[in-house]
Structure formats: structure tokens, C-alpha cells
Amino acid sequence: MKKLLFLLIVFAFVASCKEKKLPAPNTPKTFEASDFVVDIFKTIVNKEENEKNVILSPLSIKSAFLMAANGANGETRNQILSVLGADNNDMDAINATYKSLLESLDYQDDTTRIAMANAVFWDNQRIQMKPDFLTKVADNYQAEQYQYDFGMPSTKDDINGWVHEKTEGRIKEILDQISGDDVMFLMNALYFKADWKSGFSEDLTSNKDFTKSDGTVVSVPFMNNDWEYDAYANDEYQALDLKFKNDNFSMTFLMPKQKSINEFINDLTLEKLDDLYESKLESQRVILSLPKFEINYKVTLNQYLIDMGMSLPFGNADFSNLGTAGGSLAIGQALHKTFLKIDEKGAEGAAVTSIGITVTSVPPPMVFNQPFVIVLKNHKTNSYVFMAKIAEPK
Q: What is the model's pTM?
């Protein structure tokens, strides 16, 4: 249902426009919410099917691509950081900021849990990893590191098993297959669950009409409450900020009154969101009706990020800081998968971002499947120890 997008504009598991509230004090500006938060959302919404839900975690996407930036060099790295909205190209400073953010986000109490996990999976027969890269992502991104034989069918299941575990089973898999060109995967997984500060009584939940963008009407369960909320409304839109018991988190809902949902999203900017939080939301009595739902979403990010200016990482890339393989390294496929549930008790969300690194210039295979010659040479003495013709190996 397309208009459910109004519930998701600021979602990003409270990591989009609210992202700046989460880092520890004195965190440098680099990892505060940048225009990327809104731009990636707008880019995908504009190109998805009109009636399709779109759920993103800009924080998860940003995390995976910052790991990739550590393996990139030159203009490839510059493009990644520019699209992500970094205000400088100092990877040491960016890594330190992310490390601080990660420590701040590792939180759990009786009502709230948020956790992020990063990992690097690679095939040592396909790529020789650079120790410096592995050290940086381990120290700053707490990235778990796994070596696998990518040719084994069980490898895909093991990687998807990591995804399943880190998202509390809400996202069961991210990889459909591992191709012969894949040499490594950079993964970020995010999980969030929290209770509303003022929840909803299940007894008051009832079905109501929901009008989609194409004018069709469907009946969906709505949660209802009469309470004091931070809210704002004008002729253009209405907004409500729903608090969780942990005051560091809130989920904001925005719905246009005149424009279509896509037009409203296209006009949305980070500056407008900041202004909403800083000067417009005020505590007031609200008789609230909010849909109850559970939604999954999956998207391939490649073309969207290319359109935003990140072309080199997916083509003529320089990932020389990652390692060496039998050809040039580039991003083969960037996948993003999300889950969002809203009910009477609270909200639950999960996200996974997978960046597959592939060999783009694979040498032709060499198969010795007809008679061949063997030469064994000692190069120190320049002597030929053995020479052989193998007409029939047996």
C-alpha cells in the first residue's frame, strides 16, 4: 500500500533524521545526518513502482559503504564519501567517528534494544586480503571476519545464517547465490526494537479504510489513542513524533494534505526535517489513529547510487586497499533488505546491507584437457630436472 510511505519517511530505524541524536557527545560532524539520508530515499522512491512500499536504513547502507571506502583508493573512495555526505576524506577521522557511533548504538534495556553488526566474508583462493584493511574494519567497525570456500553450496547458507542471527530472525537471507566472480562480501546488519512511551490498547484497535495513491480503498487495522504527543500541522502536511520509553529514540510520521506522496517526498530536505524538530513540533492533545502493519522490502542499490554520483565503485574501480585478485576489483551487487513492524506495544525493525566485491577482469580459464607437457626446472642451476608429455593422465 503506497500511502504507507507516510509512515516511513523518517524511519531508517530512527537513524535517518534522528541519526544526529545517537552518537556520543563531541562526536565529529562526519557521521551526523547528511543529505544522503533523504537523497537515497528520494532517489529510490522516484524509481520504484508507484504503489510499492519503500523501507530503507540509511545508517545500514552508510555503514557498509564506509567499510568499502576503507578498501578503496583515489577517486573511487572520493565518490563513495561524497555520495555518503562526508565533509572530508580523512578516513582515520571518519573511522574514529564511526567507532564512537557504534559504541553508542550498542544498547539494551528492558524496553529498548538497538544493535549493529558488521562482517567481512571472503574466499582466500579468490582474493588475498590486505592485513591493513582487515585491521581497520576490525578496530573501527567491529567487523567479524570469516574465510570461506565460495564454491561450496554451504557458504551461501552460512552467510545468510549470519544475517538471520544478527537480525533476530527478521531477515532470513540476503544472498540468493554466490557467482564465480564474487570474491568477498561486506555486510552490515541492524536490529531495533523498542516500546512506545505511551502504547496503544489492543481493545481499541479496529479496521478502518485506507486510501491508496491510486484512489482505491482498503480496510486495515488501525491503532487508536487519545494522548499528549509532539505534533504539528499546517495546510501542507501533518506530523507526529511518537516517543519510545527510551527518550533517545522516537519515530516520526508525516502525511501530506495536498500533494501526492511522491511530490511531498521530492520536496523533502534534511533542512526541513531539522526545522520540524527544532521549531515546529509541540506537545498537544491528539486523537491518533495509526495503521498497524508488518512489511518486508528488498532493493538492489547499484543503479540508484550510480545516479547519485557513485559510478566508479561499480565499474572502473580502484579497490587496491582491499587486496589482490586475478583481475580488477569492483562492487558487483549492493543489496539492501529491511523489515518494519509497528503494533500496539512498539516498533521493531531490521536491516541488512550487502556489498559484493567481484573480479571484473577475470582471466580466461586454463583447462588442461588434452595432451600436455610438463617441465620441472631448477632456476638456481638453470637445469631441467624433468620434462614430460602427458598423453593420457591416469
A: 0.87
